[in-house]
């Protein structure tokens, strides 16, 4: 029976810099310096693990941050010590005015990155470079065109793959994000790693995670240990080298000896990395989430529009962060539909 890691394996990080603003340090000493901002809930794909079959209710644009509010929100967080911002969605590149937003955020002096489905990347190469973006994450769940179309409910495979290679040709660091699902695409694990043989790609395998509307069941999931067993059997354990983990790393990372690229596994379900989590999320409607798994969020947009200081609100949310997965410390907790269905769909959170 597969054993799931709990908080006993989590290393709690103590603040080492006394100048760190207290608003971004939680009760467990975790410093939060990484902000993920969703530019839109909308997407030009309909991946079933991210978006409910019937989509999500469309809301008037007044419910969402304007470009100016996105920038103001980012400025506030950078003043509190955020030094990395990742743009997410939905699909961030379909946001009206995305070019201008990216240019403006590129002036904040932070590391700026983007996660995209890759469809529109070729239209943003110059914008990325002008904004100082050097790293782009592209979501791709199958190397088989028909299967990718079934997962995403749209047929853009060739365009996505071509844009991955375009990013590499243009000198970007490229991570390919692949959600691994049992009897869906788990037979392609080695195929994805083979992309790293001759390309400096980093492929990241992500465990299937529970969100509202994706009918999550761990019978459809594949854990970190099972994935590694597949790689060990194919390549030989002695031919796979574990990489030194970076601070706040979410993935266990490896390389096959002699390969140009690397691969990693994000074990949010079986091997959570909560002890060193440094992430804050702000959804497109201006709601702050202190944990991806939390059903709770904090409205920052309304007080921002009313001219109020949102820093105390941010601080309160950070202090309310649980030690592990919004309080879901065990596998039974994360398997409870009542808890899972209280959360938003991934497309509404922003990843």
Mean pLDDT: 91
Uncertain spans: 1-16
Question: How many helices in DSSP terms?
Answer: 12
Order of helices and strands: EHEHEHEHHEHEHEEEEEEHHHHH
Give the oligomeric state of the chains in this entry, treating copies of one chain as homo and distinct chains as hetero.
single chain
- Radius of gyration, in angstroms, nearest whole number: 19 Å
- As a percent range, the share of helical residues equals 25-40%
Q: Report the sheet-strand fraction.
A: 15-25%
Give the SSE map.
Layout: E1 34-38, H1 67-79, E2 84-88, H2 98-105, E3 111-116, H3 125-130, E4 135-139, H4 145-152, H5 157-169, E5 173-180, H6 189-198, E6 202-207, H7 224-235, E7 240-242, E8 252-256, E9 262-266, E10 279-282, E11 287-289, E12 298-299, H8 301-305, H9 311-319, H10 331-334, H11 337-340, H12 346-349
Parallel strand pairs: 1-2, 1-10, 2-3, 3-4, 4-5, 5-6, 6-9
Antiparallel strand pairs: 7-8, 8-9, 10-11, 11-12
């Amino acid at each position: 029976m597969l054993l799931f890691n709990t908080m006993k394996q989590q290393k709690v990080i103590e603040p080492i810099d006394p100048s760190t603003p207290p608003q971004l340090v939680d009760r467990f000493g975790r410093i939060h310096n990484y902000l993920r901002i969703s530019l839109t809930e909308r997407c030009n794909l309909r991946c079933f693990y991210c978006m409910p079959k019937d989509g999500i209710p469309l809301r008037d644009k007044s419910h969402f941050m304007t470009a100016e509010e996105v920038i103001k929100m980012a400025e506030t967080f950078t003043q509190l010590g955020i030094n990395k911002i990742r743009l997410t969605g939905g699909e961030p590149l379909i946001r009206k005015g995305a070019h201008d937003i990216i240019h403006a955020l590129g002036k904040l002096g932070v590391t700026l990155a983007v996660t995209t489905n890759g469809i529109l990347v070729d239209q943003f190469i110059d914008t990325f470079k002008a904004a100082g973006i050097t790293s782009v994450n592209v979501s791709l769940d199958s190397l088989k065109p028909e299967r990718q179309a079934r997962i995403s409910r749209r047929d853009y495979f060739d365009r996505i793959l071509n844009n991955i290679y375009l990013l590499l040709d243009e000198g970007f660091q490229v991570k390919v994000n692949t959600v691994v699902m049992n009897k869906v695409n788990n037979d392609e694990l080695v195929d994805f790693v083979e992309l790293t043989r001759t390309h400096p790609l980093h492929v990241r395998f992500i465990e299937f995670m529970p969100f509202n509307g994706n009918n999550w069941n761990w019978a459809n999931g594949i854990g970190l240990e099972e994935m590694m067993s597949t790689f060990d059997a194919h390549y030989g354990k002695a031919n796979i080298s574990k990489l030194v983990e970076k601070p706040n790393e979410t993935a266990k990372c490896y390389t096959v000896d002699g390969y140009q690229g690397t691969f990693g596994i994000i074990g949010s379900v079986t091997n959570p990395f909560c002890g060193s989590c440094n992430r804050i999320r702000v959804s497109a409607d201006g709601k702050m989430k202190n944990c991806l798994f939390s059903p709770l969020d904090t409205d920052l947009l309304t007080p921002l529009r009313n001219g109020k200081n949102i820093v105390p609100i941010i601080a309160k949310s950070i202090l309310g962060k649980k030690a592990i997965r919004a309080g879901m410390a065990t596998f039974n907790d994360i398997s409870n539909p009542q808890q899972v269905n209280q959360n938003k769909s991934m497309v509404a959170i922003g990843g």
